[in-house]
Design a protein that fits this description.
single chain; 151 residues; mainly alpha; two-stranded antiparallel sheet; globular
């Protein structure tokens, strides 16, 4: 499996988990993590996964983790869960849900851009250590606003 397939597989799993989520579990985690709503998220270098919600560790001593889990849960809860069909990097959903599906995909790309993932991949490919460059807010906004990231 190569790097492209690994990233595609991550996006597919995240799309499935964030769109067709277990609402009862998410509401439970929202209750457990509600204290973290007031924490300012200052570190997005670690790419969070839907697994962080399903395996939520209430005992973990990391405020950024709790704030980011809370943020992810609240983001998913903006829309009722719905099934999607995925084949490799192809996504299908009921027409009523396609816009939210595209927005979620853009949001995942935005999260990847904010993380150190791309720099970690570059380091693995070349064997050289690369320090991440700062996030450009204009690029981040363009990722969120993209109309054709998937179509």
């Amino acid at each position: 499996m190569n790097i492209t397939h690994s990233c595609d597989a991550f996006l597919v799993r995240e799309m499935q988990g964030r769109l067709n989520y277990d609402k009862e579990h998410f509401l439970h985690v929202l209750t457990l993590s509600s204290w973290a709503e007031e924490i300012e998220i200052t570190d997005r270098s670690k790419l969070m996964s839907i697994r962080d919600v399903y395996d939520y560790d209430f005992e973990r001593q990391d405020d950024q983790y709790h704030a980011r889990v809370n943020e992810m849960v609240k983001h998913c809860l903006k829309k009722e869960p719905f099934p999607i069909v995925t084949i490799h990097d192809c996504f299908r959903a009921h027409p009523n849900n396609v816009q939210w599906m595209c927005e979620m995909y853009n949001h995942l790309l935005w999260e990847m851009y904010h993380s150190d993932l791309l720099w970690d991949i570059l380091t693995q490919i070349t064997g050289n250590k690369y320090a991440p460059i700062p996030v450009n807010p204009e690029i981040a906004q363009k990722i969120l606003d993209s109309e054709y990231s998937i179509n």
